[in-house]
Amino acid sequence: MRVLAIDPAVRNTGYAVLEGDPRKPTVLGYDVITIPQKLIQSAALAAIRTHLANLILKFQPDEVAVEGIIYVQSHQTAITMGAARAAALIAAADHGLPVYEYAPRKVKSAVVGNGNADKSQVAFMVRALLGLSETPPPDAADALAIAIAHLQTSDPLKAKLLARRLV
Q1: Burial label, 154 (beta-carbon count in 10 A; 0-12, 13-18, 19+)
Q2: pTM for the whole thing?
Q3: pLDDT band per the 50, 70, 90 thresholds, residue 71
Q4: Residue 14's pLDDT is what?
Q5: Phi and psi (nearest 5°) for 98?
Q6: Contact (Cβ atoms closer than 8 angstroms) between residue 91 and residue 80
Q7: Which of 69, 87, 89, 142 has the most crowded Cβ, counting Cβ within 10 A?
Q8: Would you please indicate which residues are annotated as catalytic (active-site) residues?
């Protein structure tokens, strides 16, 4: 199975593509889609959708995994994050791909073993688990973590462990 994982945001959307065995996946690519501040939000959302559509065509994933909605104190931030998430979901839907959502705490727990882990802990564990030579940027590390969590849920043995840990 090949998964495209997305950590959506209007200005810095992280993505990762992993394939294969949930215990030792192959990293096909990861990066951050950076949208210039000068672009208005609607143009930024269109750019996210286009970038993700191009990644879908390039990597031909079987499934898409996205980070779920997180709690934020500002309604404006929540609306903006939701819009970026919608752009990602539409890109996947345009290509007929199933989309799976993972709560941030569950992703952190799957990768670090602690749902309250900070970004540096997630990045460190992603690097270690995937055998990367360098620590990925935070948004890409989050996308890699989402992909790892998704692959774990496709492995019946790890899915049981993950469910026990998260409940």
Answers
A1: middle
A2: 0.89
A3: low
A4: 97
A5: -70, 140
A6: no
A7: 142
A8: 7, 67, 139
Relative orientation angle of helices 75-94 and 41-59, to the nearest 10 degrees: 40
Reported as a single tens digit per residue, the pLDDT across 110-145 is: 999 988 899 999 999 999 999 999 999 999 999 999
Q: What are phi and psi of 101, to 5 degrees?
A: -115, 140
Domains and CATH numbers, the chain: 2-166 (3.30.420.10)
CA dihedral of 115, 119, 122, 126, whole degrees rounded to 10: 150
pLDDT grade, residue 18 (50/70/90)?
A: very high
Cα 163 to Cα 67, 106, 155, 157, distances in angstroms: 17, 9, 12, 10
Q: What span, in angstroms and rounded, lies between the C-alpha atoms of 105 and 20?
A: 24
SS3 23: coil
